[in-house]
Amino acid sequence: MEFQNVVNNRHSVRDFSDQVVDHQTIKEIIALAQKSPSWVNSQPWKVYVATGKTLQNIKDAYVKKDAEKGYPDFPVMHRDDWSAETQKNMQQWRHEIVHHFENFDEAHEKMSSASTHLYNSPAIVFVTIPKNSSLWSVFDAGAFCQTLMLAAKDKGLDSIPTYTSVRFPDVIRQNMDIPDNETLVIGLSLGYAKDVTINTYRSKREDIDDITKFKD
Ligand SMILES: Cc1cc2nc3c(=O)[nH]c(=O)nc-3n(C[C@H](O)[C@H](O)[C@H](O)COP(=O)(O)O)c2cc1C
After folding, report:
1. What's the total number of domains in the chain?
2. CATH no. for residue 152?
3. For the chain, which terminal residue's Cβ has fewer other Cβ atoms within 10 angstroms, N or C?
4. In which domain, by residue range, is 149 found?
5. Whose CA is nearest to atom 14 of ligand 1?
């Protein structure tokens, strides 16, 4: 696919079809993500791919724990503590996605059911970094994840990065045999989008003139 099309067509999918994603395709996607830059080429990331029965076990455990408050390895900052600019963007996103549905009840039902069932993802790639990492390693993991999601799109696969999938890290650690000295950063769902309303929403971006400053 043209690079511009890959970038423009990637968007977060919140309801995947049951179509399986084969291991070879995921390996090819990871091989491209592996080209991502990192601090002194430290390559701090490790990937744990959950599919099949293992992913089903994770989903079942998450359904049971759904009402519990999450406790991800990275702390979650209360929304009031974010900068004014980012709060404005987050509010706009919430407003738009709710209004993308017929009414508030439908939006609430579809969004929370999607998250409870981990978006019906046929595969989730969990990304970790060592516990003794520099903040720069979070930057590196982010670059790795973005390359991975673009590589997925290039192969016709949809994706979503989610806090939701890492909100109970003990469940992921146990099911994926992740050592205690690794921090769980994110889960990237991979699969094929269902043709449903929740997947037709497209998030907006600020005008580049509002975020960019040139100085000669
Ligand atoms: C670190 C991170 C965590 C996210 N967690 C969630 C999540 O738990 N649930 C969800 O629906 N979307 C989640 N998203 C997706 C964002 O809402 C989405 O990327 C953003 O709204 C921009 O939309 P787009 O990905 O469609 O371009 C997450 C994104 C990132 C980068």
Report:
1. 1
2. 3.40.109.10
3. C
4. 7-78+118-201
5. 162
